[in-house]
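Quarterly update from the structural biology core.
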Amino acid sequence: MPPRRRPTAVEMAFLLSFHAALSGAFIVAYLTGDEDTYGMHVAAGYTALVALTLRTVAGIFTKDGSVLRFPRPHLGATLGWFTRLLSGDANARRERSPLLAWMALALLIGVGAAAATGAVADFLPLVEDLHEALGEASLFIVFAHIALVLALHVLKEPGRAASSLRSLVERFRTARREARHP
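Predicted structure, tokenized:
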């Protein structure tokens, strides 16, 4: 597989739009599953399904080396990366983690199954319980994705991440003091 090249402006716009559409749709769908907001739930669910479909098409049909191409999970590469990481190899910390390919697969399956069963439940109500269970399970996959991205960021730049966290804590404390004593 050729090495990944730097993303073009169009590719980055697509990826950022995809993440915004999917995360927004997922949050709205998750929070609006009751009877009073069912219309919003359905619209958000179909938005998530469309975003996932477009991303899947881009992930499968773009050329090798494109950032849009889905990374392929590979157990050997993952175990090799872990071995290098645990042995202290600095390059393992800086390079793209093979864990991202596994997480992309988990997200595509988990969130995709929740969105797809939601669409099916519109026509076949006996799928609603499965849809709800998949929606709940996919929330944990999303949290795992966020945790992985943050952990990999800290792994790549531990000093910078710690500095950013200290800065964030200090800004929070300053804002709190200003709110108490205007």
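The radius of gyration is 20 Å.
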